[in-house]
C-alpha cells in the first residue's frame, strides 16, 4: 500500500452521499462546508473555497484561490472560480440552487463574522449546526481510509526504526542529521 496524492472519486462520492443522507434526515436544503479539513474530506482538495453540498444532486466547490489546482485535485464535477464570497448566491442561483430555506453550517468552528455574513446574505434562511453530523460521517472509516492509515503508520514505523540507530541520550535536535 502507498499513500496516494489524490482521493479516489468513488471515495469522495460515497462521503458526499453519506452526508446527504444526514442532511435529508435533518430536512435541510444543503450544507455549506468552510473548514479546510472538511473541505478536503468531501472534495479531495484543500484550496481556499466554499463547498456547498445539496441534500441531493452534485456538490459545488466554489474556489477562491487556485481553481486549476482544485480541478486537478478534486473529482467533483462542479468546480467554479469565485472572486469572493459575495458571488456565492449568484453561483447557486445559476445552478438552480437558489431559494434556500434551511441550510447547515459548521457552527462549532465557523467564525462569528462568517455566520453573520451568511445570515445577512441569505435572508430568511434558517441555519442549523451540522458539525456533529459531519463528525459522525467522518468517524466511520472506509477501507480506503484504513489503508491510508496503515500506510502512514508503516512510514512512521520505518522512521522510528531508522532514528533508533542514530539517536542517543543527550543529543540535541540539531545533532540529529
Task: Please write out the topology.
Blueprint: H1 9-25, E1 30-33, H2 36-43, E2 49-54, E3 60-63, H3 67-73, E4 78-81, H4 88-94, E5 102-105, H5 112-121, E6 126-129, H6 131-139, H7 143-164
Parallel strand pairs: 1-5, 3-4, 5-6
Antiparallel strand pairs: 1-2, 2-3
Helix pairs in contact: 1-6
What would you note in describing this structure?
A six-stranded mixed β-sheet has the order 4-3-2-1-5-6, with helices on both faces. Helices cover 45% and strands 15% of the residues. Strand 2 (49-54) and strand 3 form a beta hairpin. The relative contact order is 0.15. It has helices at residues 9-25, 36-43, 67-73, 88-94, 112-121, 131-139, 143-164, and strands spanning 30-33, 49-54, 60-63, 78-81, 102-105, 126-129.
The gyration radius over C-alpha positions equals 20 Å
The total of helices stands at: 7
- What is the CA-CA span between the terminal residues? 28 Å
Order of helices and strands: HEHEEHEHEHEHH
Helix and strand content put the structural class at alpha/beta
- Please give the order of strands in the largest beta sheet: 4-3-2-1-5-6
Tell me the helix content. Answer: 40-55%
The fraction of residues assigned to DSSP E strands is 5-15%
Major sheet characteristics: 6 strands, mixed
**Number of strand elements:** 6
* Overall geometric form: elongated
Arithmetic mean pLDDT: 92
pLDDT under 50 segments (min length 5)? Answer: none
For this entry, give a set of tags.
177 residues, alpha/beta, six-stranded mixed sheet, 7 helices, 45% helix, elongated
Summarize this entry quickly:
By secondary structure, the protein is an alpha/beta fold. It has helices spanning 9-25, 36-43, 67-73, 88-94, 112-121, 131-139, 143-164, and strands at 30-33, 49-54, 60-63, 78-81, 102-105, 126-129. Helices cover 45% and strands 15% of the residues.
